[in-house]
Amino acid sequence: MSDFKKCIDDGVGKIDTQEANEIKALFDELDQQYKGNMASAPAAARAAVDTMKAIRRQKFQKRRQKILYAKTWQEILNILDTHRNVFGQLDPFDAAVGIFGHVRDQKFSSVEARGKAIEGLAFSQMDQILKTFKRNLIGGTPKKAQLEDIINEGFGESTGNQSAREMAEAWKRVNQQLVKRFNQAGGDIALLDNWGFPQIHRANKFRKVTKDVWKQRVMGDSVVQDGMLDIENMIDAETGLPFSPGRLDEALDKMYDNVVGEGYNIPTGKTLKGRSMANRRQDHRFLKFKNPDAWMKYQEMFGEENIFDTMMGHIKTMSRDIAMMEVLGPNPRLTTDAIKVELGKKSRAVNEEKKRESWLSKETRANFEIENLYRSHTGEYDAPIGGFLPNLLAGTRNMLIASQLGSTFWTAMTDLNSQALARKMNGLPQVKTLHQVLRHMNPLKMKERGALATRQGLIADGWIQMASAQMRYVGEVSGPEITRRISDGILRVTLLSPWTQANRWAFGQEFLGTMADNAGKRFDDLPKYSKESLEKYGFDAADWALIRKTPLMKEQGATFFSVQNLIQRTDIAPEVAQKYATRILEMINTETEFAVPTGSLRSKLWLTGGTKRGSAVGEIIRSFAMYKNFSVTIMNTHVTRAAQQVAKGRLGYATQFLIGGSILAAFGMQMKELAKGKDPRPMDNPKFWQEAMLYSGGLGIYGDFLSSATTEKYGQDISTTIAGPVVGLGSDVGRKIVKPLMDMAQGEDTKMASDLVDFTKRYTPGGNAWFLRMALERGVWDQLQEMTHPNIHRKWRNLDRKNFRDNGNQHWWPRGEFPERAPSFENLTR
After folding, report:
1. Where are the chain's structural domains?
2. Which of 274, 275, 303 has the alpha carbon at shortest distance from 287?
3. Burial of 80 (0-12, 13-18, 19+ CB in 10 A)
4. CB neighbours (10 Å) of residue 240?
5. Does residue 763 surpass a pLDDT of 90?
6. How far apart are CA 302 and CA 217, in angstroms?
7. Strand 235-236 with 241-242, pairing
8. CA distances (Å), 775 to each of 67, 810, 818, in order?
9. How sure is the predictor about 731, in pLDDT bands with cuts at 50, 70 and 90?
10. How many CB atoms are closer than 10 A to CB 769?
11. What pTM value is reported for the model?
């Protein structure tokens, strides 16, 4: 036995037997590894030194994580003891849920808001990359060759492309900052020279090969192929040393099992004492590839082939993980379970029987919501779609969106009202809202204005991810890429996506502009709503005194507050500057959700019940929840905020929300009537304003579907309609296709050709796009219906009479004919 191992055995008592065995095992591995290059004695000496370095490093990291956990836990206890709910009552349950998902006004950070803020700070330094490779009308990313130049530059290989070199440097800088922030929160990721780019492992590709075949392809062998990995420069995260053959083999085994077993590369802790996220994040990061060709080959074989998506996905997941660690500590699973235990203590501490029952029910609901939010943040609910049924349901939802939401741009006019309310509550000017939104939609200046907004930390969802606009109505987007591209393209060309992004940018920039305008004022001299807005998010006079000294940004003829200038200040500690910059973006992003509701995580989980995306049950539930996400978000934002106001303010807020929203909804409804070839509806009809009020209250998108399901006499009963568009599609398939085929087989007369025309008209992607609808209906569908339906003109007359009876307007472009007149606007004066 070596002297080193004898010393370890002699130390048993001060250290436990398991730890001693682990130390000796590490020594044996290093000793065996070093003996390949030196004599036995020097190899043993070096192995002993490196083993002790690794052990000291591990102990230091564990001690640091314990300190960070203790600090975080004290902050969480304070939140649970002091937070008040919308009714002004002390409410630890509301506080606990708010730690994970930020919707209501609260003075503390949530994981959700923190993640978005970190993401915004990261993307603010990548505005040129986003501007260059932003998604086009079909959801793709252009300039693939230049993306490959960035990859080469990122691995340290010169391409002669100056632009690519600069963007690669920006990528490296952002990645280094994220790693640094991750480590500050308790992580321990080594920064490797020319590390290059991350990997997104695809479980479906892994499952096509065995573990041994996968390892052979990435490591290579001396006979068949060269390996992809730069093994000599890969670092073992646990020891801080180069990998020994044994430990590398074990690490690769774990990686393969993790990807195949979970469907994504960050496993979820299953127990109270599971591995901390600070350590788990290292699992998929230790791979270092020899060169850009090896990296791209690996992505093609086992990962995400879209380079842009790989880069954006890495930033998003790193931002999310950093947020979890900063808010919940190095081991978020441990903290989450500890919060549940604390809520149980507080619930049991209430002695009165009625209160105890109430608190126990609150505890149950809070624990359920906390667990769902935690699992969503870890990525457990975002497993890739797999299997025939989940893919079929997800793809069907995408195609329904493409065929049913082509006129939703007009419904989204109510964004102007919600933005006006959000501006008022934050002390922002309201008079130029529409002008600012349209300026961001100007195609001639869209790239420049978008790049500025991104540089300011305002997230460009429409540039980064496919189908961002439909997420506000559906909750999440998944399924085959071709169906996602179709639905995304329809929402882009019908202007819903540009409108949503422009509204969010306009609000965020006005917020930063108002902060710049107020920079010369002391805290007590700020306008009423501006001061209250800061106080809602925990800023006081001392905070504002520090913040307002930040140099302002002057761009495109306007002056803005700059979070980047705040981070770069040298008169305050870097961690303080980072803290304030992050909190400011949390405030802006949260208020933007009130200005342009797009669907919070809590709203999505409320509808889906915490079921996994990609599972059969999860996809079925998502199909039932389709189009309802927006209404739930309105409830969680504006309805809740109205309840928070004092009596007089509550009435004023609700009145402005309903009246202002109803007026804009009425405008959108009339525009959709014109797009259908009809005159505007009479505005003296109570039914018209009742519908407008429902649309303004968040039912607009679901109302679009309800309208399309009932006004054209498709025969669906109300239960089928309420069940959602996927069930409606199934019903139509049965009535319009399956039943006629069965009747035909039995020799009965059918109207199958006419039914098939009706079905195709309703479910053709883009068929109800507001600018294309009448050309298709009069030029294609009406002609086909005349050819296939023997009594189509009588059916049309009946529909027209019913429409006039219900809505009071007529067609200015009659069915099956050329327009005989222009639209009549007389109804607008009634």
Report:
1. 1-82, 83-378, 381-627
2. 303
3. buried
4. 16
5. yes
6. 10
7. antiparallel
8. 67, 18, 10
9. confident
10. 22
11. 0.85
